[in-house]
Amino acid sequence: MAILNIVTCVLICVGIGFAILSTVGNYWLVLSLSFYSMHSGLWSVCNNNYCADMTNVSDIINVTRAFMIIGCVSYSVAFVSSFLIYAKKIKNHKISGALLCATAIFLAIGLSTFTNEANNSYINISGFNIAKSFSWSYIIGWCSFAISVISAVICFAMKVETE
Length: 163
What we know:
The longest helix is centred in the middle third of the chain and has 28 residues, at 59-86. A 5-stranded antiparallel beta sheet has the order 4-3-2-1-5. With 163 residues, the protein is an alpha+beta fold. It has 4 helices and 5 strands, in the order H-E-E-E-E-H-H-E-H. Helix 2 (59-86) packs antiparallel against helix 3 and helix 3 (93-120) runs antiparallel to helix 4 (136-162). It has helices at 2-24, 59-86, 93-120, 136-162; strands spanning 29-32, 37-40, 44-47, 51-53, 131-134.
């Protein structure tokens, strides 16, 4: 049982790290031409030499930002809850499990909203072939989502085991 508590705490720490890196990273989307490339995150757009803050953004980006930040905060609360369980200050694993489920939902909404917008937005510059791809900030956001789901399952499994 103590091993599962440690595993959960470690998974949550990794998940928080991934969620924060994803949220602040500038590599959600990469656009490439044969001679030029640029990448963007939720907060700035960059080329090879310069990054500019994104000020006038669509509502979709604001929704993604909000849900990613809420996901990071709920991940942090889930970690505190999990740590208190490990320290035997509280005994109910359902609290951590529920917080991790909420975290997964928040991250999924933010990431799915961005995915939908990125897949539905067309870049049309006549005569140029532009490649659009998701990059590491976006990918570790989905990894963070998966970690929160796995951690929630472990928390609920521990609760069932202790009853």
